[in-house]
Amino acid sequence: MSLSHLSHLDCPRCGRQYDADVINNLCECGSPLLARYDLASITTRPGDIAARPHTMWRYHEVLPVRERVISLGEGMTPLLPLQRLGLELGVPGLLMKDDGLIPTGSFKARGAAVGVSRAAELGVSAFAMPSNGNAASAWAAYGARAGLRSVVAMPVDAPSITRTETVISGAQLYLVRGHIGDAGRMIADLIARSGGALFDASTLKEPYRIEGKKTMGYEIIEQLGWRCPDVIVYPTGGGVGLIGIYKALQEMQELGWISGPLPRLVAVQSSGCAPIVQAFEAGKRTAEQWPDPRTVAFGLTVPKPLGDFLILDALYATKGTAVAVDDTDTVATQARCAQLEGAFVCPEGAATLAAVRKLRESGWLAENHRVVVLNTGAGMKYPFEVSAPAFDPADTLPG
Ligand SMILES: *Cc1c(COP(=O)(O)O)cnc(C)c1O
Ligand SMILES: [Zn+2]
User: Distance between CA 238 and CA 179 in Å, rounded?
Assistant: First the structure.
């Protein structure tokens, strides 16, 4: 028996509906599609969930997988109080959802677990996608577990560990001189020439990875005792996690699992690639292509997110905001977090902490706000970002 209450897919732009039990990519109008559930038929209450296994599959009613879950044990990562760093940043109630502790070392595992499970049960046997590194390593790993063939293209500058992870899982890897948009063009070409053999699993062209990433929203709320924080701060590349968290909040509201105002959502980008921040500041509903994107927070190097209007809608609807931080700030904050909290976060996660400092200084955040930042990956995946000089024993021994 299926535990999913998935009913159909619909288009958030034009409203067209699609059958969820056949393979779909984008809407005819070019928009990403969103999975919808028969929420009214769900009788589960928050208290029923407590005793379930500690993975993201504990929310199976609102996940799209009907039969076969491909899992490496992902989800229910810690929600850590960052008291010492919080004091330094001026927000003592600071909390960090730490997705550094998840299979493949980044939260892309959530999207891959659901995306691959769903692709496999709908009959896909091979998929292709562009990636900035972490999505490729996650999809390759889950693809291997499901027995699917995977083809990925990533920028030659992507973190080298993600290449290793991708190749060891048996994926076919292409390196592209350029950014993820260039990798995307290469993949589109391969798919077109494959005669239907390759499923297009590109970010948001495939409707289910967002369902995996939305579980971060469910987990944050459950870990806070089914109460909302004031603010959730998210490092935004393609924006899938932010769109997903917003979707989760809306679903929980409709299910009656939460009440009151939703948390204000904050999109954090790097000043070297900030199309969403630029659009938000101009009050626009879509983003412009960012020229020459560059940042140490490699997962944020997305010059024109396909779901830009969904990200911006979520920011406006929750009275949130968008902030760009400099790489120097990101790198310094990454070290501060490790020194004060023992948490070695990825640069993308560090960017959210740097943004908290900026938002506190500007007065957008108040001292008593309960703020949750997302750390989307393990700092250990990017060792080359950090210089680690050691002391020379000869310098410290008495002469
Ligand atoms: C992909 C990625 C992001 C950006 O995620 P989106 O949901 O696409 O905005 C942030 N951090 C890390 C570590 C990533 O790999
Ligand atoms: Zn449409």
Answer: 13
Phi, psi of 348 (to 5 degrees): -65, -40
Which domains, ranges and CATH numbers included, belong to the chain? 79-106+210-381 (3.40.50.1100)
Which residue has its alpha carbon closest to ligand 1 atom 5?
Answer: 237
Give the mutation target among 99, 234, 300 for probing the ligand 1 site: most ligand atoms within 8 A of CB: 300
Atom of ligand 1 nearest to the CA of 238: 8
pTM of model > 0.85: yes
3-state secondary structure 359-399: HHHCCCCCCCCCEEEEECEEHHHCHHHCCCCCCCHHHHCCC
374 close to 231: Cβ distance less than 8 angstroms: no
Pocket-testing residue among 77, 97, 98, 108, ligand 1, by greatest number of atoms within 8 A of Cβ: 108
For 55-104, what is each residue's pLDDT tens digit?
Answer: 999 999 999 999 999 999 999 999 999 999 999 999 999 999 999 999 99
Nearest of 144, 138, 146 to residue 154 by alpha carbon? 138
304, two tokens: 């024109």
pLDDT for residue 108 is more than 50: yes
373 lines ligand 1 (CB under 6 A): no
CA distance 339 to 341: 6
Report the atom number in ligand 1 closest to the C-alpha of 237: 9
346 lines ligand 1 (CB under 6 A): yes
The DSSP-derived string for 135-196 is: HHHHHHHHHHHHT-EEEEEEETTS-HHHHHHHHHTT-EEEEESS-HHHHHHHHHHHHHHTTT
Which residue has tokens 């997988």? 65
Q: What angle do CA 99, 128, 267 make, to 5 degrees?
A: 40
User: Distance (Å, rounded) from C-alpha 339 to C-alpha 328?
Assistant: 17
Ligand 1 atom closest to Cα of 302? Answer: 8
